[in-house]
């Protein structure tokens, strides 16, 4: 008897196959880990189970009964609850109101409902205050409200999408106790994770996805160690990607980051004392699971986010006190993770976007010399082979590859000394990826120091001269891509002890 | 000396039964309109068409009063007419997803224009029906509250009842929970199975109906007559009241009475000013009534600034999804 | 319903706004025709009469353009703020503030020569409008206070201020009963351009052209457009949003204030109704013009004609408010129609897979 059985699930999106015959079997009363790299298809598979997507092929069975969900409400009715990484709570509603929303009685009795929610919470050891408004709660408490929402609807299967990403270690340990209580009641918990230690502590079995397929199903977590897990997740070194010739002689330091700490609005250190250097012509890669401080680190270096402490220097000039514009004029270019809306203004046209960095230098006085602007844009378009249709149309309709070439090209237009490239190839098709990677390599050969932040290990191994791994805001390991294995790096990403991973 | 003067003036004003009657009338009128706007905004729809909706309600109510001779029938007709009229805003901003600010302002301009156009012949006609004061027997004999609160007309009690019902529905029923969820986060409400567009349309319709009642009350009680500029900014005060009362029916009532009081007091600084021979039971302080009439707007700005400062480290009291059109993301 | 739904277009329909405006106009004229029939008039006759009054002769053109001036400038004021995503709902009040400041200046220098007095009066008016916008601008930039409500409230305060002035301190002692200020010095009247149009037409045209050019071509205008397109992109390239909000809202108020000054030149004294809805009409104009100066001019002339037509048919016993009704309906119709310039209706057959080609760049060129 199985609580959940997903069999041969295929799900295709334009240009991407997210699930290619993935399967998953979960026993009742167990905590089941689903592991995989970013893009392995975990979230898509879970969204199929939660009724958000309809699979192109394959079957979904609950307790042996085949299901056909056409909307999330169908899955909820069938007893499947999902807790997303981004909580779906209303901050100004109380815990009770959030829990009851969508399945409340016609007339609400505040006290009796709060009592019911309180009792439900107590039964599963979910410490919460039913009358408090959600905005006052910590992330851990909010997560418990999400779990309560599912339990209120009597979910027999609960999916937790990377639940510990937002939790403190203590809160994570408490979550482990909660899932154990729920499993003891006969419910099944699906636990999506990257972290080996918590998989081993919290879960009974694990299923590993890679490239949309299930590569290992229902392994006992006792059989899992860091090496095996990383091997399953990233695979053997199968497709040997074209390694670029590494710079043997790294020039002078062009980027110096010293002891940077960045706090989020809740006062958590999302970047925790990071120091790194990038030399002339060097590509330094930063690996890490999403949400481990890569984005705030890049923003802090580029001047979009205030660092609490620490200094940043470009070619030995301290730029810590400067705003984003002045940093840029000191030779720091930045390809941000959000290419639309941050790096590019989607409602403006290609010319406007092409000159967004250097419009001040185009034309004397208050006016922009648009003749010059057009020729700048034209040269970018030609040099980076950007297909824009009409240059006077808003960018919104361009493909990801063209947008990214425009963004990268513009950032390189003023010949920077340092380029921070955050997820520069994410979401691009094969040719798009190659085009961007070629540009990065070419620029490094020309002497630009590049900090490459990526979740794609293949890319990092192929391009980097040195590889740093970030975990929970800190740099936990440094590797030489020529000698390190993917398993070692994967283990460091999953939070194995830094000393194991260091390969100095 | 000055303090004694002010205290004396205050006594003159507070013992003026006519002032209290006017205060209640304007308070009721503003409360009805503002309550409707609270419902719409709680569902996430800013409707800047209140001024225009009230004009349509005032004209329709006046016309229906002449036709039916019954103030209640006229008020109901006005409420229904304006609920339908408000659907223009509903369709354009909620269904089609156009900007709520522009659509609401267009509704105001359309309403003022339509009321003026259709009501041209009504200007010269006397009122066909009026709301009469409701005597509550012994209660109406009590000095002070007797001739004022306990002698107000039926619409006053209706307004208070609607306020209570609105509070109850918003805070104590599933329908209210869903409506507030739609106004806080349409996507979350949608995920929980609440029909976002339908909820918003209903809220806009109810908001319109309440504005229609307010308009009818204006021409069937407060003035009672009709001309095209009769609303004269009362609709904007209603919009302001929603903010002043922080989107809460109870606080909005207090605000409505306060603003109604300012409207009632203003002219008395002129009509009851001491002049020459009359030196008792009159007002000595020299304040221009027009300056008093600015106070509701000025107070609202002050409250808005205070609310902004308050919400620096906590969520704003305004519904979070206000002004945002919702369309489910297609994958 | 029947499986039809709206799907976002990759690119807004080219010329879509003009199409939406056309649809809005048709909707409005059709509804207006219904009203006219109900009121016992022949719509064709009335509409022809309106068109003739607006465009039928040089004199007609001169009145149309005269009406288009405040519409265009008020529309520009709203559009300046709107291009950055800010709503200046307070143009109405800023027009009044401009008129108050302008007439205050004009009263100071009754002996100054005309050109100088007019110049000072207009500068004063612009400053007056700017000052009224300053409060909301500071509150928005530094405290995040919603500018829609503050500017809206200031409209009513400005209206009551001018009411106070013309009823009290500025009341013309020679006018019996009527609350109006004394006439301004004779040389403050704007010189005639042609027929009934005065030079305000030239001034408005110049402001629109200069501003339109500057917004499109200058570094300042470029930054404004970035901030309007995406605040995060603006921060990314190092534009100070606070300073932009301040300057843009105050500039918007100043342009609206200028309308107040120009109206003084046309009406020779300040009255309570000096703004007479121009500020609100400006919001409609700006919204229809998609916040673009060139569009503002075109819509302003169209609406100016509507107003002239509306006044002209008063003699036929048709209330002039028909013009307002049509204006509002054009906007509402266009707003409703605009949804189809950014969305298209998709039949029940094609589901998500059908969007695959939309990523293709070839669609961009077509």
Question: Could you characterize what this model shows?
Answer:
The complex is a heterotrimer of chains A (about 500), B (about 325) and C (about 375). Chain A has helices at about 40-50, 70-75, 95-100, 110-125, 140-150, 170-185, 195-200, 225-235, 295-300, 325-330, 350-355, 370-385, 400-415, 430-445, 455-465, 485-495, 500, and strands spanning about 5-15, 15-25, 30-35, 55-60, 65, 80-85, 155-160, 190-195, 205-210, 215-220, 255-265, 270-280, 285, 310-315, 315-320, 330-335, 420, 450-455, 465-470, 475-480. Chain A is α/β, with parallel strands linked by helices. In chain A, strands 6-7-8-3-9-10 form a 6-stranded mixed β-sheet, sandwiched between helices. In chain A, helix 8 (about 225-235) packs across helix 16 (about 485-495). The termini of chain A are far apart. Chain B is an all-alpha fold. Chain B has a domain at about 25-230. Chain B is built from 13 helices and no strands. Chain B has helices at about 1-15, 15-40, 50-70, 70-95, 100-120, 155-170, 175-185, 185-190, 195-220, 235-245, 250-265, 270, 290-310. In chain B, helix 3 (about 50-70) runs parallel beside helix 5 (about 100-120). The longest helix of chain B is centred in the middle third of the chain and has 27 residues, at about 195-220. Chain B starts with a helix and ends in a 21-residue tail after the last helix. The model of chain B has no long low-confidence stretch (mean pLDDT about 90). Chain C is mostly helical. Chain C has helices at about 15-40, 45-55, 60-80, 90-110, 115-145, 145-165, 200-215, 220-230, 230-235, 240-265, 280-290, 295-310, 320-340, 360-365; strands at about 5-10, 190-195, 195-200, 345. Chains B and C meet through helix 4, helix 5, helix 10 and helix 13 of B and strand 1, helix 5, helix 6, helix 11 and helix 13 of C.
